[in-house]
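User: Before I run my own analysis I want an independent prediction to cross-check against. Here's the chain; please return only the structure tokens and, at the end, one sentence I can use as a sanity check.
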Amino acid sequence: MAEVPTDEKSMPLLDHLVELRSRLIYSVLIFFGFFFLAFSFAEEIFAFLVQPLATQMEQRSGARMIFTALHEAFFTYIKVSFFTAAIVSFPLISTQIWLFVAPGLYKREKTAFLPFLIATPLLFFMGGALVYYLIFPFAWEFFLNFQTPGLDGSLPIQVEPKVDQYLSLVMQLIFAFGLGFELPVLLMLLVRVGLLTAQGLANKRRYAIAGVFIFAAILTPPDVISQIGLAVPIILLYELSIVGARIIEKRRDPSNKN
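Assistant: Structure tokens:
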């Protein structure tokens, strides 16, 4: 007997459109709700993002951050609120997408895709936590070492980070690491639908490693610390993806002993 979707009643097209509109409205309300909430704490959130730099600069006299345009600090807080709302609301918005799509899926399809829906935000947060707690301290210390005291009558070179440029750099790194950590989700989905195999992933390992370093070089600042800090975890995740792909293939075909 053929398997039928979990929702046995066929919904007319108009009902689907109404349902889609409702989910979109919920998603927009969720995003802007978090946006206004984040804006209320934008100064505290920005201070949290600045903390790794502040820790590295606390022993340096006269350390400060600056803004050179009257509107710069305000729009920086707007960006902080936007990025915070995007990150925090993503699990809830993806849940709205799932609630819209799930009734039309077979039970086995739900079982297959639900773990990936859960893993996506978790891996993104793991990537963000890695860059914040591990990469930022080393990277900021590396950059700060280029300050000079100005010997032999020369002028000193001191850093005075701009708030908007610092935020852009921080968010670039957080999103780079977050997206990089989504690699297992993408590869496992491709394996599950039959577009990739574990053996194929293993055979293309050298090309994947080269591609990871190119990806890291494009999305991170031109320093070795952040590039290696992004590339190495992604390579490890690639190896874990190969293991996961073999597990998927064994479950699909119990006779497969490879």
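Sanity check: The two ends are 32 Å apart (CA to CA).
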